[in-house]
Amino acid sequence: NFNDSKGFYKCIIGDHIFYRYEILKILGRGAFGQVILCKDHKIYNSQVAIKIIRNRKKLYNQGKIEIEILKYIKSCGKGSNKNIVEIYHSFNFRGHLCIVFELLGPNLFDIIKQNHFRGLNIQFVKEVANQLLKSMNILSKEKIIHCDIKPENVLIKNVKKNNEIKLIDFGSSCFENNTIYTYIQSRFYRSPEVILGMKYGLPIDIWSLGCLLVELFTGLPLFPGESEQEQLLLIMQVIGVPSKEFIQKGTRSKYFFNDDYSPIIFPNSRGLLHKPSSKKLCSILHLPSDSLFLHFVSSCLEWEPEKRITPENALKHIWFKFHEKSQ
Ligand code: ATP
Ligand code: MG
Ligand code: MG
Fold this sequence. Notes:
Layout: E1 16-17, E2 21-29, E3 33-40, E4 46-53, H1 57-77, E5 87-93, E6 96-102, H2 108-114, H3 122-141, E7 144-145, E8 154-159, E9 162-167, E10 174-175, H4 192-195, H5 203-218, H6 228-239, H7 244-248, H8 281-285, H9 292-300, H10 311-314
Helix pairs in contact: 3-5, 5-9
């Protein structure tokens, strides 16, 4: 038996998988399986990252979708999508779906942690934003929603002193015309339309991007909700309450709003009350109210998905035109 009780493949350093890849190290472990560092014995001196999916039917099927989407992106990009992780190939091994990827470096959460959660400089944040938007612009053109943009799913590849920012983990992705799941996105980065159970589309990724960029800059998650209820309260604390028309569109709004459309406010586990509009984004960022970065992230954090900036317009935002010292 090659699996543990939870369906994880039992990885042993030095073992080979598929007669080709020698296991060197475990790089990451998630709900879907493990990602391992391997030496590729078919290509001299090369290393790859292999995602070994747990042998569970549902995860296997999701892995199939991840492969389909990554291959599709690769086929339509013709080299222009260097900000999306490259898939090399995939195979079945001892009942596990395995996906072979180009080897990348640390993820953005590792970087934030290495920096002791004190936040990174604005030039780095801008570089991440710019490169991530290039990947999101490609997804947007192909009508693919990533559905799980967060620091752990953005990796850095160091190429001769230059950072290449790469989006990974298409395990929850879907085409915009085929949104089957309602329970998507990691809670801190979950968009209002997903929380409230509305129709959703490409703008949910822009919401997550806004949350991610603030977190990179401050070192702490912008909306660290312990529950979906608290998640929405934390959002309202910063961007105010949504309109009645917006609330009416949600199939789950009754869990968050009273009959008169006022938010249901309750203390969290530490007895804290989050009052709507009681926190300002400029105070969270410690930036003046005319800061270009503040303006940029505010345009990602709009209630209405239609009002949120698109990747194409975001790439043209004036924040990217100036090289600032502190803002
Ligand atoms: P989750 O359970 O959070 O959805 P996941 O199990 O779907 O995650 P990934 O996000 O694809 O798996 O990978 C998990 C972790 O493994 C990543 O956060 C990253 O740190 C590491 N990793 C993934 N792909 C690579 C790669 N190509 N090179 C280096 N490290 C990688
Ligand atoms: Mg992941
Ligand atoms: Mg995933």
